[in-house]
Amino acid sequence: LRMNAVTTISPLRRFGWLLRREFWEHRTGLLIAPAVVGLISLLLTAVTMFAAIGLGRNASGNIEVDGQQVSINGLDLARLMESMGPDDQQKLGEVVNFSLLLGSYWPLLVMALVVFFYCLGALYDDRRDRSILFWKSLPVSDLATVLSKLATALVVAPLLAIAVSAVTMVGYLLLMMAAVSWLGGDAIALIWQPASITTLLATHLAWLPAYMFWSLPCVGWLMLCSAHARRVPFLWAVVPPLLGGILLSATGLVTV
Predict the structure, then answer these.
(1) What share of the chain is helix, strand, coil (3-state, %, to 5)?
(2) b/e map of 144-181 (b: 16 or more CB within 10 Å)?
(3) pLDDT digit string (tens) for 61-104?
(4) Which of 63, 149, 171, 213 is 20 to 30 A off residue 112, Cα-Cα?
(5) Up-side HSE of residue 78: CA atoms within 13 Å toward CB?
(6) What's the chain's Rg over C-alpha atoms?
(7) Strand ranges (DSSP E) for the chain?
(8) Is 173 within 8 Å of 100 (Cβ atoms)?
(9) For 221-237, what is the HEC assignment?
(10) pTM of the entire structure?
């Protein structure tokens, strides 16, 4: 009965369990590391932003808004907003969206490093700790195991990083709104309305197919080194391409 129960499990469901296994074993790198980096970036931004606000409150001088000189004595966003024209509001929206996009990059950068080292250890670690013998005893093919690791690097990891990136963008948005409110400005008109969170998130999701296409050769090479290297797969993955690039450059076969 137990064998019949095992054989009735669909291949798709087995593959889903393989993906869960990869997530459970690498949860720290796939989810926690981007989340921690996003949180640190928010904390550093909050400290820097509110320290700058304290200095801005004591600022004085003239600034140019819509071609006119406006005198300020302390940073008062309410007065500045009254003098803003349509072009200034459009530029403000671009600055807000660029700031949100820039802040959301930190989890994605960490994801790239995590995927690099994940691919290097994906098959090497199973051979080193002999856990491959346990997985070979289960009704799961080697092809399904390798494909689950490939899908984790190309799909699961970037989707988790995009989710963390979206939360980080919301955090940056709330920080900016709090700063504007503290300076006496209308946070809804100056920050919330110009911001395009959904558009930025859609942009990240639109980059996913391009990421999968361009990173597939690199991921394949790293997993190949992970499968065949007896020691230090990092050197096997980095040194041959580096030496090949140096030789091609020295011989003049490839010119930039």
Answers:
(1) 80, 5, 15
(2) ebeebbbbbbbebbbebbbbbbbbbbbbbbebbbbbbe
(3) 444 545 544 444 445 555 566 666 667 667 777 888 888 888 88
(4) 171
(5) 7
(6) 25
(7) 60-65, 68-73
(8) yes
(9) HHHHHHHHCCCCHHHHH
(10) 0.80
